[in-house]
Amino acid sequence: MDRVFNFSAGPSTLPVSVLSQAAQEMLNYRGTGMSVMEMSHRSKMFIDIIDTAEKNLRDILAIPSNYKVLFLHGGATLQFSMVPLNLLRKSKKADYINTGEWSKKAIKEAKKFGDIKIVASSEAETFNHIPEFDVSMVREDADYVYYVSNNTIYGTEFSEVPNVGEHVLVSDMSSDILSRPIDVAKFGLIYAGAQKNMGIAGLTVVIIRDDLIGFADPSVPQMLDYKVHADNGSMLNTPATYNIYIAGLMFEWIKKMGGLKVMQELNEKKAALIYDYLDKSDFFKATIAKPEHRSRMNVNFRTPSAEFDKAFVAFTETRGMENLKGYRTVGGIRASIYNAMPIEGVETLVKAMVDFEELTKTNQ
Ligand code: PMP
What we know:
Mean pLDDT: 97
Strand order of the largest sheet: 2-10-9-8-5-3-4
Strand content: 15-25%
Order of helices and strands: EHHEHEHEEEEEEEHHHEEHEEH
Bound molecules: 4'-deoxy-4'-aminopyridoxal-5'-phosphate
Radius of gyration: 21 Å
CATH topology of the largest domain: Aspartate Aminotransferase, domain 2
Largest sheet: 7 strands, mixed
Structural class: alpha/beta
Distance between the termini: 38 Å
Number of helices: 9
């Protein structure tokens, strides 16, 4: 099989077993004589697919019964607007932690709807760390506190859930959901685009506590109102049926792998392989200095020059690795190693780093 190790930040690599199951079921899904793509979303068969996907997600994340799971469209980006449109319910104030491009975009959008304050930020140092945050920084009457748990672009990640006391906590977990166990009860709302750890682009999963549903202004379009989606079981209109099916396969795969504790161990092991090498290398350097701020999902690093960065990326391509070029505004090298990246992929990358470093020495 001539598959490459794909280090793309998203859409990203999927487990081969998920892809081959989808391929096997493509023409005739379990005796229905049709593919999931061709099925009515109101059919018994599809209702079974979406219900099973939700049940498995609830099992994996241990989602309490007072939370709804919604399968929505619009990417994670639509949540930048849906969150403030629905959760600015009393003071119309919300406090945001600014850790990168994705929080900046969310802040910009939220400012259209309320009084938004940045309570902690690492922008002055080009987002190279997770800023200090304490609940005392939050305005007492803030309707919610917002943060991005993993910063896909800069490669930082919160190692702990910020303590916001009694405040409602909202998290964009697009790039690290299902990579470790989390205590859902600490959050008012969690959302994530599917295209990193939950399947393919075009689906966004929202997990929202019941008591936060129903506060959108009547002028808010129904497609942007969580209550309308919750009341209609994510079927106000035609949901992203195939994407939900693939997410369902991903949830089953995680269960078979042993659940989130096992995913966490694997992810920590993979990340450590790269960071340990970066910390002892004379040639490659991790972009994020503090180990406790480093992302386990998106490992950013660089060589001594942009030329070497480019040459290294080209070198990895000759060894069956793709998409290691850093984000366009950040440069360097970025290895996205979500759940589905096998440890062999990471070992192959580290071997290429060792060999490339050696080559540059012999060429001096
Ligand atoms: N938030 C985070 C943390 C992301 O990494 C991304 C995409 N990479 C987005 C939001 C935007 O996602 P989408 O393209 O699905 O709107």
